[in-house]
Amino acid sequence: MSEEQDRQIVGELKKRVLKRFDVKSWSFDKGYWTKENKELLSEDVAQVIMPKLGKRNHHKQQYETSRSFKKLKNKHSAIESNINELEHSGLDRCLERGAETLPEIHRLRRNSLQPKKNWTANPGTRTPSTTAVS
Question: How many CB atoms are closer than 10 A to CB 3?
């Protein structure tokens, strides 16, 4: 998978995701766009947000400036922003492997934003010390 380009993994990605989830809309970056990928995803997903690479014709320009496209594209941007926030707070990789691991990701994020406690020097105990952090 490391030798593949983004646009080459869409078919495999579709199989894995649609097997487990009911997807109403799906958003991608420009790097995933090909005519074949757009058609492949449109068969099973109601709204596919996949901006076209390069210059757009009049029809594509109208579609990509439509209200529904912009709304879902903004949601995509919000998710990208959340990923950046996680990377900035110390999680340089996304650990998500499905819905089962989402609570763990939220716990890690919450803990990374909380102030650090002063733990005792004894490695066998996990109780906070009574001394203040200076």
Answer: 5
Q: How far apart are CA 79 and CA 100, in angstroms?
A: 19
Tokens at 112, concatenated: 């990374």
Cα distance between residue 76 and residue 26, in whole Å:
9
| CA atoms of 73 and 26, how far apart (whole Å) | 10
28 contacts 50 by C-beta, under 8 angstroms: yes
Total-model pTM? 0.52
Q: Which pLDDT band holds residue 134 (cuts at 50, 70, 90)? A: very low
Mean pLDDT within 10-26: 90
The answer to whether residue 96 scores a pLDDT higher than 70 is no
Q: Cα(75)–Cα(60) distance, rounded to whole angstroms?
A: 20
Residue 27, classed as helix, strand or coil, is strand
What is the average pLDDT across 48-64? 83
Nearest CA-CA partner of 71 in 35, 108, 25: 25
